[in-house]
Amino acid sequence: MQLSARNALKGKVVEISRGQIVGKVKVDVGGQFVTSLVSVEAIDELGLKVGEEVSAIIKSTEVMLAK
Q: Transport: present as a keyword of the record (predicted)?
């Protein structure tokens, strides 16, 4: 699969929390964590499991910083 997004972070799934419609997938990217909210249907279709290697693809028009 090829994507136009250039921000792909390789990591490992460390936690999956499933709701009725949406789930939270937490990915360890070199000691930093990225959490993605995805549909439960997508979790099932991808067959995501804790311990699996995945890529977190970030596509955004803005990046906000706060201090």
A: no
The reply to whether 67 falls in a domain is no
Classify residue 25: in a domain, yes or no: yes
Element (H or E) spanning 28, and its range?
A: strand 22-29
Residue 57 CB neighbour total at 10 angstroms: 13
pLDDT of residue 50: 98
| Start-to-end C-alpha separation, the chain | 37
Strand order in the sheet with 22-29: 32-39, 22-29, 7-18, 53-58
pLDDT over threshold 80, residue 11: yes
